[in-house]
């Protein structure tokens, strides 16, 4: 899976929780929770969506690393590389 | 299963602010509680901001840390009581110069930033009414509340203004002034005032005008089953309860470092995130960031938090992260932990012992009560799952309504009824703004009726059973179905909509909507997502449904009322009860369901 694929997947997971973001331009380093109005439940569901789509186990302690599009892509790329 | 009672040692009891609950209940009077406050100098009345800030700034606590603010990105800003006095005086001066009169409503729409705390206390100082709005509201809930409050001033940030307020401003004829906390660009959008510039130009001395204890101070919006949100009005006298209950229910003392995680956009974040700890003279910790397990443990440890007041959803998220994470950040200074927002499940109460060596102390109150009414106290054994016992000065009963103004008191222990409170505590709401009839309907037979169903056990502990209405409790917030349904109905494809609280292991309930479509619209996954996005854009994450099911039609009574409870029963897989008034449903057609969880 390329970074481009992962990016698409992260955007899809975000759009399942916050569908209005599907057509938005999102800066890679924009804090998702604040800028795109995700509450704790939305953020948790976003992470669960990423886990389901990739199979990557994401422990709670790593959640903050997935707070931006770039962060989520980098995290998933690295974790997939390890397995 | 039955949970063991968590017993308190004699040492713990003795060390608490209220070592003997029974004795305290016998001896307590609100008049005595009032004597623990100073009142305005010269007998000019009672003002919350004076009790919270100025009286300490004029005495030995002047140089003491009142608030420590932790920025999202690691910034720390400290405010001593004297610094807080000067900043809030400046803000009171700003409002006065803008022509704000006692009784005018000053609203806020801010994340947890220092300016929010300064605005709240500064507003109270100048005699205006402070009305906090939750920053995760979307434009529609903001508009509804600002319009209903007829707010003259709004304090917000440049970013929130652009995203959520500028488009609705033309529909807010009462809103004269918008004061913004500038962003990184240090600019204020057109048509707004720059808070920094206003504060810099203002005097840091301000004499609080004479304030009647019964003058309006706080306006908190809450939701009912039907109709628009209600504005619960509170007066300066409420500070007697804020102060007293902070001492008894949260066991707070001046040497404590207190962290209330609630957002001041809701009543807990005001009564106990701003007012209560300051009146006691303690140090309050404020974290700007949203929930994050590791960050929270670091704060408890590094800020040496002694008393912590948080919410069930957060506790359950910490539990999910595992007890090992908690143990990696020992917080030996922590001595009392409490929870409010929705009932705390016994597993979570007991998990506190595992993670922190302390049980969580659940307590109960609501926007209308202004302060904690029922609690598990530091000196009292904890029965996991119970909300505890009434505070000294608070008399409760379990009742059944028998008529418009009559109730029967349920005396059998264990029998379910509505929780009722004898009026007269200082932080009781004094009305719903511009809705006297609704206020009157909240009382019957000499009680304030809370709308919560409880039972009381033979030991006098109260147990939450459910709501007596269709209001949704989610992540510690109350959400009214009407507001959500109205927003969904604005979508061109939606013919009808109804909303329920769907039980959720984390949030207690989540908002779930059911919609039926107008002819010519087909149910599809695309449309379902579009509706969620549509609702989020209008209502914001705090109010918008997390799940939407599209149905061929919504079940109705013969008189045409949508049967919310039937949909809820189906959602839960429960028996559907008496359906004799149900109209035949349309033939099953395409339906799509599912959600984000």
Q: Can you describe what's shown?
A:
The complex is a heterodimer of chains A (83) and B (597). With 83 residues, chain A is mainly alpha-helical. Chain A has one domain (3-21, 32-82): Non-ribosomal Peptide Synthetase Peptidyl Carrier Protein, Chain A (Orthogonal Bundle). Helix content of chain A is 58%, strand content 0%. Chain A has helices at 3-17, 32-35, 40-54, 69-82. Chain A is globular and about 30 Å long. The model of chain A has no long low-confidence stretch (mean pLDDT 93). Chain B has 597 residues and is of the alpha/beta class. Chain B folds into 2 domains: 10-454, ANL, N-terminal domain (Rossmann fold); 472-572, ANL, C-terminal domain (GMP Synthetase, Chain A, domain 3, 2-Layer Sandwich), CATH 3.30.300.30. Chain B is 31% helix and 24% strand. Chain B has 19 helices and 28 strands. In chain B, helix 5 crosses helix 9 and helix 10 (239-248) packs across helix 11. The radius of gyration of chain B is 24 Å and the shape is globular. The chains are: A mainly alpha (83), B alpha/beta (597). The interface between A and B is medium-sized, with 26 and 35 residues.
**Silhouette of chain A:** globular
The largest sheet of chain B is:
9 strands, mixed
The unreliable regions of chain B are 584-597
State the assembly state of the protein chains: heterodimer
CATH topology of chain A, anyone? Non-ribosomal Peptide Synthetase Peptidyl Carrier Protein, Chain A
CATH topology of the largest domain in chain B: Rossmann fold
Total of domains of chain A: 1
How many helices of chain A in DSSP terms? 4
The largest beta-sheet of chain B arranges its strands as 2-1-11-10-12-13-14-15-16
SSE string of chain A: HHHH
How much is the radius of gyration of chain B in Å?
Answer: 24 Å
CATH hierarchy class name of the largest domain in chain B: Alpha Beta
> Share of helix among residues of chain B?
25-40%
Helix and strand composition category of chain B: alpha/beta
Radius of gyration of chain A: 12 Å
Tell how many strands the DSSP assignment of chain B holds. Answer: 28
The end-to-end span of chain B amounts to: 28 Å
Main interface by residue count: A-B, 26 and 35 residues
Number of helices of chain B: 19
Uncertain parts of chain A = none
